[in-house]
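Backbone-to-sequence.
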């Protein structure tokens, strides 16, 4: 059974051909997010290429899965809204089905990463899993009883917008004190900005002030590696907030595994101790003592692998 899994990301579109539990072929294209037409052209190109390559190997593609960062009306395969793409009530399932004449299934990218980690990644075998993707923002997904939890309108599992500090920093979503406003790449950037504006002097703030537009969370990690105390403190503090967020998730869902992925894991060694400490202090003992908090093993392939799994199950997961 050959299927295609696609992950439509903010800057890259990744696609893979999957057959018999292995990846036969994969491609990555830049995403043209300037218009729905640009996005559609990219999706058509990557799908056509993979279908052609499948035919070259004597394989017939039987279904197609697609992950997108955004709110997905799962039963209808419509992108209701997407933060990184100009897509509103966009019937992507029907467009791809019409073009390629195979069943198409569309889901949120965080849901699909969670699914992939629970079936083939760090959480393999877990029926109850919570997944957090920590990059510029924070995404996630929840697996309950082996199935993706999507909520009433496909808007569930916005784990980055779990509020953990009342009246905390303003988040991109408009609320205050969301996990994303305290732990993401953007949150870490803002912490450095605040230090710099307060006049605190260190190589960290010097580099920030020299070129704020080029500065990123990775740079904080580099300064932490150089032994810079403010950099280490910022990451440790983010780790502590992360532990509180994970404790809330564990208290609600009692998962077997929590998996973490995303670019911020590059700084994880400066976050992990405080994360485990605040988690230990905040989680309910019965859930806390049985959950494993692991780094995901699928990296940025999780989304497209999850999309392939969704296609294999014909949307039944
Ligand atoms: Zn938020």
């Amino acid at each position: 059974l050959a299927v295609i899994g696609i992950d439509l990301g903010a800057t890259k579109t990744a696609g893979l051909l999957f057959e018999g539990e292995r990846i036969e072929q994969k491609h990555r294209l830049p995403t043209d997010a300037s218009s729905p037409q640009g996005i559609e052209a990219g999706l058509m190109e990557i799908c056509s290429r993979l279908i052609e390559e499948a035919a070259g190997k004597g394989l017939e593609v039987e279904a197609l899965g697609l992950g997108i960062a955004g709110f997905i009306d799962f039963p209808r395969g419509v992108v209701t809204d997407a933060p990184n793409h100009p897509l509103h009530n966009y019937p992507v399932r029907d467009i791809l089905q019409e073009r390629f004449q195979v069943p198409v299934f569309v889901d949120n990218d965080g849901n699909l990463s969670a699914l992939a980690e629970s079936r083939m990644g760090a959480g393999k075998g877990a029926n109850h899993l919570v997944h957090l993707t920590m990059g510029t923002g924070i995404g996630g997904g929840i697996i309950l009883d082996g199935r993706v939890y999507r909520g009433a309108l496909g808007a569930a599992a916005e784990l980055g917008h779990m509020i953990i500090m009342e009246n905390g920093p303003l988040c991109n979503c408009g609320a205050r004190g969301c996990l994303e406003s305290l732990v993401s790449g953007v949150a870490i950037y803002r912490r450095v900005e605040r230090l710099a504006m307060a006049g605190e002097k260190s190589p960290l703030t010097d580099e920030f002030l020299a070129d704020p537009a080029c500065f990123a969370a990775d740079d904080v990690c580099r300064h932490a590696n150089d032994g810079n105390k403010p950099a280490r403190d910022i990451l440790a503090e983010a780790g502590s907030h992360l532990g509180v967020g994970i404790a809330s998730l564990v208290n609600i869902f009692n998962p077997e595994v929590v998996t973490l992925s995303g670019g911020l894991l590059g700084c994880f060694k400066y976050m992990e101790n405080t994360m485990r400490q605040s988690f230990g202090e905040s989680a309910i003992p019965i859930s806390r003592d049985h959950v494993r908090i692991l780094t995901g093993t699928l990296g940025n392939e999780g989304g497209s692998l999850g999309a392939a799994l969704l296609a294999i199950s014909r949307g039944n997961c």
